Fold each of these.
Amino acid sequence: EAEVAQSPRYKITEKSQAVAFWCDPISGHATLYWYRQILGQGPELLVQFQDESVVDDSQLPKDRFSAERLKGVDSTLKIQPAELGDSAMYLCASSLGFLGSGANVLTFGAGSRLTVL
Amino acid sequence: ELKVEQNPLFLSMQEGKNYTIYCNYSTTSDRLYWYRQDPGKSLESLFVLLSNGAVKQEGRLMASLDTKARLSTLHITAAVHDLSATYFCAVDNAGNNRKLIWGLGTSLAVNP
């Protein structure tokens, strides 16, 4: 069964350091999402790509977070500098098309758990 | 702005019992998703509900959607321990910039 690949699975870093997460969506999935999930809460959308273009980054803290999907396939989410409040699970998901087009289910990767000390 | 409310947030139930989780949302939407998350793991899609009156069933779980009442239910029949997890509903905001708005999740513990 096709999967969304994410790495690293776990990352421990000190505050003010830089950290990067990588995501490889299911082959052929045009839409890619980065979510942040704080323990005990639902996922919060950080950024959504359609192919290589950003569709929505309204909740991305742009002073420290950046995301790219240069060739419209895999994607990187970067945090610099990391802060204590960034400790969370970072989830990548992909879908065949846009929300609103058919069932268009989001398939999630295993996530990258970040701990900032 | 679309808001999604789940209740209960925590549910402890005995094996063999039935129960229902509710997902209310505040503005019009035409699709709703249910996901399951095991502790420390990622989210697994359970159901997609695309129209008023839609009902989907898989094993001991059945989900339904009433778009007029802006309500979805996830019904658990004869619960077993393996169903212990957190269940999220997510609603498509159906706006110009479509995205999913997530509930806080219902943490379900099924006890022997």
Amino acid sequence: QKEVEQDPGPLSVPEGAIVSLNCTYSNSAFQYFMWYRQYSRKGPELLMYTYSSGNKEDGRFTAQVDKSSKYISLFIRDSQPSDSATYLCATKTQNNAGNMLTFGGGTRLMVKP
Amino acid sequence: SQTIHQWPATLVQPVGSPLSLECTVEGTSNPNLYWYRQAAGRGLQLLFYSVGIGQISSEVPQNLSASRPQDRQFILSSKKLLLSDSGFYLCAWTYPRDGYSYNSPLHFGNGTRLTVT
């Protein structure tokens, strides 16, 4: 079993839809949670960074962490064709000598105009 | 602000040839540095990380090696490439554990797409 599971998709939605992207994890020591967006042939760029349970909002993006269920989500409101990309969730523990992340496999999102 | 540079962006190499990919970070000192590989349709695989000059940790035994000759320079090498070395190679950095914030996230370069023929 992978430490972080993510549905690979592809997820296809019409422009303007609300998108929900999800990951589950198995290690209860994970304390920090990130979402990265990766356009084709580019490196991942950091979208959201949260600590512990709760919600964090940034513009059209909301990251949600439920540590009791080991479940993390990214919501995209009013989705745009420019949101079409692969979204990677990532986590890490607090006592981590190399400050290393554990990634999900990524979900490919396609927003159709 | 901090920036990370990777080159080349694209590389086509024959089997058995050597490899050298370079990554440099600007705007910070003593970063942690990482090499990841991303195979087509798959997630990110950590290959090496470094917490300081000359300090390299290998996560996956393979045909590749890494070196950190300077504080903000990280090099990925191979003496003889295999077909299975094809992939998208990403360099990344983060603040060190005892530096600005050990809670800091990872920041990636734009990658090198390597095709071994």
